[in-house]
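Subject: Re: docking follow-up (adenosine-5'-triphosphate)

Dear J.,

Thanks for your patience while I sorted out the input files. As discussed at Tuesday's group meeting, I've set up the holo structure prediction with adenosine-5'-triphosphate included as the bound ligand rather than trying to dock it afterwards. The sequence and the ligand SMILES I used are pasted below, so you can double-check that they match what you have on your end before we go further.
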Amino acid sequence: MDAVSASPTPAARVGRAVRVTGPLIEADGVPDVAMGEILRMGAGGISAEVVGVDGARATMQAYEYTGGLRVGDPAAGTGQPLTGLFGPGLLGHAFDGLMRPLSSAPLWLRPDRPGDDADGIRSHRWTFVPAVAAGDTVGEGDVLGTVPTTGAVEHRVLTPAGCAGTVERIAAGEVGELDAVARVSGRDVHLSERWPIRRPRPHRERLTDPVPLHTGQRVLDLFFPVARGAAAAVTGGFGTGKTMLLQQVAKWCDADVIVYVGCGERGNEMADVLDDLGRLVDARTGGRLVDRTVVVANTSNMPMMARELSIYTGVSIAEYFRDMGHDAVVIADSTSRWAEALREFANRRGDLPAEEGFPADLASELAAFYERAGRVTTLGGQEASVTVIGAVSPPGGDMSEPVTTISQRFVRAMWMLDRDLAYARHYPAVHWSGSFARDAAGLARWQTVHGDPEWAQRRARALEVLAEADRLESLAEVIGVSSLPGRERVVVLGGRLLREGVLAQNALHPNDATCADAKGAALLDLVLDVIDACHAAIARGVSATALERVDMGPVIRAAQDGGPEDATAIAATRERMLDAIRRVS
Amino acid sequence: MSGDGRAPSWAAGEPRVAHRDVQAIRGPLLVVGGVDGVGWDESAQVATEEGVRHGLVLELDGDQATVQVFEGTDGLVPGAIEVRFAGSPLRVPVGAGWLGRVCNGRGAPLDGGPPVTGDRLEPVAGWPMNPVDRDPPHEPVLTGVSAIDALTTLVRGQKLPIFSVAGLPHLALATQIAAQATSAGTRFRVVFAAMGLTHADIAYVRDRLEERTSSGELVLILNAADDPAIERILTPRLALTVAEHLAFDDGADVLVVLSDMTNYAEAVREVSAARREIPARRGYPGYLYSDLASLYERCGRVRDRDGSVTIVPVLTMPAGDITHPVPDLTGYITEGQIVLSPEIAARGVYPPVDTLGSLSRLMRHGAGARRTRDDHLDVAAQVLAALARARQSAALAELVGAAALGETDRSYLAYREELERELLDQGDAESRSLEETLDRAWTALATLPRQELTMLSPEMIRAHLELPDEGVDDA
Ligand SMILES: Nc1ncnc2c1ncn2[C@@H]1O[C@H](COP(=O)(O)OP(=O)(O)OP(=O)(O)O)[C@@H](O)[C@H]1O
Ligand SMILES: [Mg+2]
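The structure tokens for the complex came back this morning:
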């Protein structure tokens, strides 16, 4: 047992339930009840968190189905906030919103299943490799030792925050999941740490210069990039491809650790993520992708308030790995379901609703969540980050609804998925006019320093062509494309090449699922050069019709011709195409 | 459809304390005072002079319990009723005893048979399935309907709704699927639940499903338009509880058809309004998403176990509006959608599936090599891409006149006609094998110039279009 859970329960503090309506419970008479405290309700002892105290009455949100709970049932204080066990058993596994392991849970999730510290669940033995020796001096956040795990992510056991001094004892070799591995200036440090799920983990300071997170998705990396430690959101109506895009990022981005939070979404998708990641190989490490991933699954039919919690569970797990010096990405699908849980509870509590029934503090809740993203110097002095990427599911695809508009204010990048693009099977359906990347300028500087000074210019030109092509296409719909002057017909053609040859990316094609920066840049150069060549041809007096007859298939297929890292094949295509266009008369 | 009014025997439970202190009746809700020791979500019986009604505890506050009455509160007089609480959530018997039966929306027999009994009782709300125990769906359910099998393949364990508009033949399609669907090499069972259908529709459903019902493969659970509206909240849960146990205990592949979910959602809205809850959109409660998910998420497959639950909800979009909360929230939960379109119906095509607006998200896992046929996914992609192109040609024809179209555009228009005639249009009792369906797709594709078939490999084209003895190139 570790220190916190082993502490003796204070004298029983038991009150009585007086009201039960779904996940909302009220209880009277729990002495000294504290906000955020967990109470155990009824004979089954289901967990409920105190969210309001009024005199002797506590209002709670229950994390389980409350069926069978009666007025008069005991409400027992635990004196503890909701905690999770953070340790080496996280990577490669799935947990529910309360951070209980799902792999050891039964097929049907009834409320009476065991907690995360029940006998047997935490029986795994690990090997602890010390990094310090007895007598050494350590500061908070310093590495005490490492634990080899299945994947490539080094699991580091750190000196906890607020702890420093002389190492009095240090373990080596086999240890249990709940064992102490060191003693530092009178304090035991355990292999696994119990931490309040909602509480942000401390760091030294925030870093502000942007460094890109490479996602492997061209439309993001070339046009709407996200920086490490930034927050991003993807929004769009149902079926526009939010989940597919997030799963692609989870698979291919160049972070060390992924925390994938299925928040109020489909069970089959969670099974699919686990299955897929279990099969895919991480090109950077050679291990399986699942070994750098933690899945937090609270599907739409699991208890509603645990869904609300699952977002924080995900961020806290990511911060845990950040503190070890890793770059972590939290993917939350979907933050709208989390907001709905907030709304549901606020309504039951009788709070005055703001827009569309959402509570008035929705904006501050969302802001606080996105603010947990950041690139920081850790307590141990390492640079590390938590990037947060959330899906937003606007009702009716209406982008003026509260969760979308609020998210827009707080994220650094917004990827707007367009129903018409998805309908035309253009994936990822990220729309170039509705999306934004606030860090684009900063990231352009990074690209310049790191060998690609053209990055910003290429992006600006392509966005310009896309916007003009959009305008001309709606005009062409009315007057027919053949009525446009030659130069404009080339722009329309260019828009199509950019969309089909660069922006569209087939998640299911092994060559195209992910794309290296160099290959993306080469593809974009290819299309821009083809457009330039076409303009030159028009200036030479070539007809637009003749140009439109050139087989542009090689441009459109270029992305799939070579592997994800292969930019050389594209250069060859470029020469061939430019030559073909030069020969048009 | 209230049947013979007899309560199903399993609803009787043991005798309990009778509560007579009914303090308020509000819409479908009763507020009962002097309650002690009653649990939240416990089932209740409301005894009146005419018979027994059934309810659920929605809220406990001090000694008051708010009870939702499935049969509605019409005719209830506060002083003349007794409420008894069952000590458990609402449970129903499960087992093979349901097969071949026709019951009302609460499970009481409508077929003149005895009340349904089972091996044991299970709560109608079910339990969430542990997501790590799910097996991602990967085998097809074949419906015999070409538009679905070819282009939006239904996969065992999937939830795939039919979005329709009042007046379109969605009930014909839903019953056709229920009557014809099969899964290769396994036992296939169907649970068909009707919510708020007219008596004419119910007679139609019973007639269309008669054969499969009498052969003991199908369960019919029927809530009619003039049955209590609140009963509709129970009906799909009953259907799914029966289905889950046929699937995960008995190993059958079970298809659950739920029609019409718009009526169901209205019942949810009615209860919410009676509770004076703050509505989210168009009067529907904010929890409609979670409520619908608690039904649709009961589909799936379990790792290392036989059996599956596949759900096909049918709903009519009010005023054809896909952004209406019921289709919208459904679309956010289900794995794709099959959309029916009035324009296509007007062209005389049955089923009037808007193939471009429809999508089966799991099709790529459940169709193709080793699932259906090697060429399936490529053929489907080509059919749809060509159809999208044909639509542009049709728009152009409207602008410049069909006569002014180029040869390619004209061949696309011919393709669309051929596709509708060969593949998409079908008799409402005609069941086609997958072979026939895909061969018909090839016949339609054959009307296009070969160089337009960019999504098909030359080998495939040779195998299907250039061997005269295959008999598919004779169109
Ligand atoms: N990048 C992609 N490549 C190929 N197909 C895609 C891609 N993105 C989306 N799709 C197609 O669109 C379907 C829906 O995508 P997805 O599940 O990601 O939508 P969503 O926006 O998450 O919807 P919901 O809000 O209902 O969860 C997928 O099943 C797939 O068929
Ligand atoms: Mg999704």
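A couple of observations from a first look. Confidence is low (pLDDT under 50) at residues 1-8 of chain A. Residues A 236, 238-244, 393, 427-428, 506-508; B 332, 361 surround adenosine-5'-triphosphate (ligand 1) (CB under 6 Å).

Let me know if you'd like me to rerun anything.

Best regards,
T.
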